[in-house]
Amino acid sequence: MYLQHFGLSEAPFALTPNTGFFFALAPHVEALQVLQVALQTGEGFIKVTGEVGTGKTLILRKLLNELPPPFRCAYLPNPCLSPAELRWALALELGLKYSANIDQQQLTCLIQQQLLALAAHGHSVVLVLDEAQALPDESLETLRLFTNLETESRKLLQVVLFGQPELDERLARHELRQLRQRITFSYRLRPLTEAETGAYLEHRLRVAGLDVDAPALFERSAVAAIARASRGIPRLINVLAHKSLMLGFGQGAMRIGRKQAQLAIRDTEDAARSQWPRWLMFVGLMGTAAVFGVLVTLRFAGGLA
Ligand SMILES: Nc1ncnc2c1ncn2[C@@H]1O[C@H](COP(=O)(O)OP(=O)(O)OP(=O)(O)O)[C@@H](O)[C@H]1O
Ligand SMILES: [Mg+2]
């Protein structure tokens, strides 16, 4: 591949959310701050939403890595679970050993006892769910009931939901208003600006081994094209950057310019194709209308003559 050609030691734009590549972008840092403050305050429910590919799973992993010891995390990456499955999964994450024959009520009691025992040892238990938009309504309700459990002073379980914007749409429904009211802290990830896109590209390249003294690998025109076509979505930025580097390597280029970026965009289904600026379209339309008007007038005048 292109690694050697550009002086890199590892792939800079892999799609896995690897915390080693984390770049402290404003929205991601703010999301982590909101999470940390909310968890310290002992809130029941916290929510982080964002479009597909904006970095939710990466932030989640960062949170799991960085939460200090009094917090004990239970992590459910795939919450497409019925209420019963959710209880089993939570029990497993809390380190409970139970017989498969116990019923749901007994399981709930065991979970409650374990949460109390952990609280007595000074632990704050945080249940973190990724892809929360896929949770069935009944499972959301089960979660809400678990966050009702509390000691005199604090909740026994805090829940952090990460999800796509569909989660907000679901929570807006009347049936889920009781849960909605408990979400006191939430954060919505926004897309990256053009300047952030440029800094993001460079950061990942330096982590991947690009010489610190080397000039920026992506020219400004390439950054602008990628920022526009990706609509500021990090996963799409990665895809476009990777393809641009492949094309640059194929052409023997040492830097990535607009040409490689445009080809990468054309080759990527989800990328927004470059559009004419609006003012240019307006001028074009006005020009066409004017010419049409002149032609009609001439014709009319000719007809009269
Ligand atoms: N701040 C960041 N620093 C470095 N890489 C990032 C950052 N934000 C996002 N990325 C990268 O963008 C890609 C998409 O991120 P991630 O998988 O976390 O998105 P997501 O919001 O969970 O997407 P989905 O909704 O599909 O689950 C990953 O490769 C991730 O490493
Ligand atoms: Mg994800």
Structural commentary:
The chain is of the alpha/beta class and 305 residues long. The chain folds into two domains: 26-188, P-loop containing nucleotide triphosphate hydrolases (Rossmann fold, 3-Layer(aba) Sandwich), CATH 3.40.50.300; 194-266, Orthogonal Bundle (Helicase, Ruva Protein, domain 3), CATH 1.10.8. It has 13 helices and five strands. The protein has a five-stranded parallel beta sheet with strand order 2-3-4-1-5, with helices on both faces. Strand 3, helix 6 and strand 4 (157-163) form a beta-alpha-beta unit. Helix 4 packs parallel to helix 5, helix 9 packs across helix 10 and helix 10 (220-230) packs parallel to helix 12 (258-266). The longest helix is centred in the last third of the chain and has 27 residues, at 278-304. The structure holds adenosine-5'-triphosphate (ATP) and magnesium ion (MG). Residues 56-57, 130 line the site of magnesium ion (MG).
